């Protein structure tokens, strides 16, 4: 009996090791850029299935769809909004998206689509802001309701929970930004720039930065490149970890979990960058342990 038991255990171990064998993931990536490549590495780090990657910018969109159909994967991972738009017509294979700004818009594309948006929950961001600027009483915000209305509501909820005032003004055209900003002068302690394509353009970014420095109102943004240009700080995403989150979703699906039970989530990790020169220019005192825990822009 003992002799039979040992081979049986060995057989079970071998079978469990091969349980992922034959499963396949097709990764459809919009373009080869740094953040997307980092996200792809994050996906690979947690997925045990075989992965085949297709890059849209290196082929025709119609070829990508036919290639995915030929691969017949168990899961499709779509990196970037262009990849989602390209393959969302495939409705019989689970799709996990990532590196997409508006997860809410993607979620309406089909019941087989789930994923991770690039948004970091506003309450998480506000906590990071308060570490740097603990004395703020009122936050300024501009937004286009059609672009980021839902996100602006979340910002409002986050401020309400912290008993912080919010002056949020709607703009429907980027040309409305200068006047809306001027109306906030002497009324807000910090301006929060959210990823809204109406509010944030090359021209308006320059106006926002100038408004911040001239009126000594700290500017908090979502992208490190704007912190490099003169914003006080940025609260950005960790592309590799977003890849890990998406990879974990793909693994759940491969393990048999129903796509409908997974849903849509936001990025869980934030990368905080602080412009040290702007800190000095605005005369802000930040504890050393806070600065040491952030990425410094000299």
From TrEMBL:
<feature type="signal peptide">
    <location>
        <begin position="1"/>
        <end position="21"/>
    </location>
</feature>
<dbReference type="InterPro" id="IPR007487">
    <property type="entry name" value="ABC_transpt-TYRBP-like"/>
</dbReference>
<protein>
    <recommendedName>
        <fullName>ABC transporter substrate binding protein</fullName>
    </recommendedName>
</protein>
<dbReference type="Pfam" id="PF04392">
    <property type="entry name" value="ABC_sub_bind"/>
</dbReference>
<keyword id="KW-0732">Signal</keyword>
